[in-house]
């Protein structure tokens, strides 16, 4: 079915209730590579429940953490083959420290659909509150659907965040595990693109790729640990554009530059001559 922007844009996707506990947070952190140095005092608050802190990016996956079926890209006015889909952008704004356990509800909608000619971009927004209505966090994601453009919609904004100049205040290498995607899929994203070589081949890749949201979380953790002294409560927003793919087992090179409100960062794949993986990555500080 072709995309129908008249139906899709503004479509209310309803309210979903969900809950999480410390085990979910621990699994999420481990799936990002936390605890790689299990004796390091800086790592223990990510992996021990008696002192647990929650990385803000957990809020992006929390509503779907306990989903066990591959995601379906089917919304009002939209029906897209999963093999054509890649994550394009992601942001989260947190309104306070994320609790290690809780119950919440997410109100979601399709904010926009853009026609890029050979592809479509689907923008989804979600507002998450406690069951009493107190704000917890908001997210905005962009899904890039290859081959789904040409439906006559708006192209959307074309502005890009200018690349930072000068020397970075941080440059660090972060390794990933060969089985990183198999761990991360336990956090609710069972897209076979990240586990099944045959499905990855149909999507145009010679092997499964790492979840974009895994890379997103890994980079956020690297910035928090190296620039914010490990204080997750200092993060107000964290946003990125997915500029390329990372294969499990590759090493990320994370660079960051200071800005007026926090930091701008970029991540590249070391083993492939620093091909871009994330760019236009912004962390703002409370």
Short description:
With about 290 residues, the protein is of the alpha+beta class.
CATH class category label: Alpha Beta
Give the amount of beta strand, in percent.
35-45%
Order of helices and strands: HEHHHEEEEEEEHHHEEEE
| Structural Rg | 18 Å
The total number of structural domains is 1
How many helix segments? Answer: 7
CATH topology: Thiol Ester Dehydrase, Chain A
Kindly report how far apart the N and C termini lie. Answer: 44 Å
Structural class: alpha+beta
Mind summarizing the main beta sheet?
A: 10 strands, antiparallel
Widest β-sheet, arrangement of strands: 1-5-6-7-4-9-12-11-10-8
At CATH level 2, the architecture is: Roll
- Secondary structure: number of strands: 12
Low-confidence stretches: none
Global geometry: globular
> Please, what is the CATH homologous superfamily?
Hotdog Thioesterase
**Helix content class:** 10-25%
Mean pLDDT across the residues is: 94
């Amino acid at each position: 079915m072709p995309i129908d922007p008249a139906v899709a844009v503004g479509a209310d996707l309803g309210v979903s209730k969900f809950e999480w506990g410390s085990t979910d947070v621990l699994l999420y952190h481990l799936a990002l590579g936390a605890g790689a140095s299990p004796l390091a005092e800086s790592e223990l608050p990510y992996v021990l429940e008696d002192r647990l802190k929650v990385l803000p990016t957990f809020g992006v996956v929390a509503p779907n953490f306990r989903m066990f079926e591959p995601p379906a890209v089917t919304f009002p006015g939209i029906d897209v083959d999963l093999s054509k889909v890649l994550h394009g952008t992601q942001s989260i704004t947190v309104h306070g420290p994320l609790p290690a356990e809780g119950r919440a509800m997410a109100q979601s909608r399709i904010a926009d659909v853009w026609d890029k000619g050979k592809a479509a971009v689907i923008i989804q927004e979600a507002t998450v509150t406690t069951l009493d209505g107190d704000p917890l966090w908001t997210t905005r994601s962009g899904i890039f659907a290859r081959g789904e453009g040409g439906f006559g919609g708006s192209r959307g904004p074309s502005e890009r965040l200018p690349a930072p100049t000068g020397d970075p205040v941080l440059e660090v290498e972060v390794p990933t595990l060969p089985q990183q995607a198999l761990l991360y899929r336990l956090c609710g994203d069972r897209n076979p693109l990240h586990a099944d070589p045959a499905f990855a081949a149909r999507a145009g890749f010679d092997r499964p790729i790492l979840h974009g949201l895994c890379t997103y979380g890994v980079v956020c953790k690297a910035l928090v640990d190296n620039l914010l002294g490990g204080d997750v409560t200092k993060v107000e927003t964290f946003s990125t554009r997915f500029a390329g793919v990372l294969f499990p087992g590759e090493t990320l090179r994370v660079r960051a530059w200071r800005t007026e409100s926090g930091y701008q960062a970029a991540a590249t794949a070391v083993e492939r001559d620093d091909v871009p993986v994330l760019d236009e990555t912004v962390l703002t500080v409370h």
